[in-house]
Each structure stands twice: as C-alpha cells, then as structure tokens.
Amino acid sequence: MRRRLVTALVSASCCALGLAPADPPLPARLADTGGGSQLITAEAPDAGSTTGTLTWWDLRHGRWTAAGTAPARFGSGGLVEGSEREQGTSTTPAGLYDLPFGFGIEAAPAGTRVKYRPVKESSWWCQDNDSRAYNRWTDPLPADCRASESEHLVSYRTQYAHALVIGFNYRHPVQGRGAGIFLHVNGKAATAGCVSVPPDAMAEILRWTDPSRHPHIAIGTAGGATALVRR
Q: What is the pLDDT of residue 6?
C-alpha cells in the first residue's frame, strides 16, 4: 500500500511540474536486440531520409545505456525492409543484423577486438550475382566474379579507412537482394545503401565493439513500416 502511495505521489508531482515519465531507452523498446549485450541503433526519421542518428549501447545490470552517438547517413534511396530490398536501388536495408568482421585501408584503431582485415590492392567485395563469391570479401578477385560488378575496396580510401561488415544477406546470400552493406566512414554525401558516420565515431565504434558480447546493429526509422519499434 505504501509503495502504491509513493508511486502515486511521484506521478502527481511530475504532472504538477509538467514533466512526463521518461521513456525506456530505445533498445529496451525493440522486439529483438540479437541476444547480446552490445547494440548499435541506426535510426532515420522516415523511409525517405538519408540522414539520422547512430547510437551504440551497452547492456549492464539489465539496463541499456548509451555509450556514444553520432550523426549517420543512409542510402540515397532511403530505407527499405531488408527482406524486400533489391540490388542497385541505393537503399539501406532495415532490420537487425550481426557484425561479422571489421576491415580497413588504415590500421585498426588501438584497442580493436573484432577480427579486422587489412585492405590490400588485391582486396575486393564481390557483388556479381552470377558468382559463387557473391556478397563476399575476395582476395584476389575470383575468375567467375566480374570486376565491373564488384567493389575494389582500396579505391574507397575515405569511406573504407575503417569499416564494419553489416551481416545483411551475408550468411545465406540471396542473389539480387544486395551485397556489400557496411558501417563505414562518411564520404561526400549519402551512401549507396550502407550506413556511414564521421571518422572519429567509426574509430570509436571499432574500439568499443566486443565480439564476446555478441554485438548487433538495428537499422530502421522512427515510424512507419520500417520502424525500429514496431507497434
């Protein structure tokens, strides 16, 4: 009885002061966070947006707390549900994904714990729908993967200075759905479907990411069909 009275008094005080009870942190409102204790959320205002906010979170003692935040960029085509995405649309796939490994033209930031692959002149990401290496890092480019349908990673010196692979269409690739979706450093404008952040944020995220805590990234919007929080 006493606990109910205290709760009622606190609620009444908040109303009297014009204060609304604080919402739970964003990860606590998601249907699924991947089961780990680290989560990155990349949220755009709506499906047509090319900018938004990226936040990385820690789950400690049962509560999610923000470890950092940065402005984010999305695909020039906006966002679309990952299961409905088509290659070549420059859309960012909404959904929950793991982070298989990091890579970069520059050395891994000090303290990086994720598997990190250095980009060499011979490093490619195969995006050829007719190749057995579709949506895979290849070094060198295999004979059945056309260079014209792939990314020569070293050519993107700014964007791929540091990056994390987003596990979209990665474990069991579906041809035509899309390949080479990363979290990487900002280029000059919106991405071709990836998520990008300023260079200092990308370096911090690599230092923060701990594979033993099973990190994931949740990509979506504040509302609508691609909302992070589904109602």
A: 35
